Amino acid sequence: MTPRPWRGILVAGFVVVAVVGIGGAATGLWSELAGDPAMRIQGLTEEVPWHEALPVPSYAPAAEPEPAPEPTFDLATHSTTDPASPWVIVNKQHPIAADHVPGDLVDVGGARLRAAVQPDLAAMVAAADQAGARLVVRSGFRSYAEQAAARADVEGRRGFAHAERYSARPGFSEHETGLAVDIDSGTQPECNLQTCFAQTAEGRWLAEHAWEHGFVVRYTEQNTAVTGYAPEGWHLRWVGRDLTAWLHAQGVGSLEEAFGVPGGPDYPTG
């Protein structure tokens, strides 16, 4: 049978149309995806550019851990009013009971002191000796009657006004706690109980190092208005190394200031 040429023409035309149609659709799709920056993704609340609609991973840095707070020193560890407390404050506004006698007094170089004071005092004397300062223990605990006698002696020799500045009335002396000690100079004994003690090797060493061993130089030129006493470089008060380290670090010059306890030069009236 003779082939019909029109059929071949129809088939070829159909193929051309199909190819052109497919190519056109592909070209249009490519144009929408790649060539048109205004292409929109449908189905969202608002139309947004396709490149903005894709999720972007977040790489925010991890938060730095907060440093642990520094521990605070607890000034309420011991009482400032209990005469048995290592932090008891006795001054011209805060007396101690007339019949108070600590039950743990021990002999330290001929003076009576509370037992807790002895190790630190021995360590301090040894450390000072290595530095060329000879600390000599002069006096420690005094009973009410003994303090009355000491006060009367100072007043008799130097007068009432002088005694008020340097010697406590009985019932108002730190010596009655068993926690205070007077130190003599082993290199310049002529300055014992004198203002020049501060210029001796012992006085200078104590001013710089007593705190390292749990003692404070209780009465200084800087704290006279607060404590009520003139400077006494020889009068030490033991409160323990924890408290003296805190006082030194904070630059606090007296127990009254540290604990917010009133002091001053005047005794209670009435």
From TrEMBL:
It comes from the Bacteria. Residues 112-240 form the D-alanyl-D-alanine carboxypeptidase-like core domain. Keywords: Membrane, Transmembrane, Transmembrane helix. The keyword Nucleotide-binding does not apply. SUPFAM superfamilies: Hedgehog/DD-peptidase (SSF55166). InterPro entries: DD-CPase-like, VanY-like_core_dom, VanY/YodJ_core_dom, Zn_M74/Hedgehog-like. The chain crosses the membrane at residues 6-30. Gene3D superfamilies: 3.30.1380.10. This is M15 family metallopeptidase. It comes from Cellulomonas wangleii.
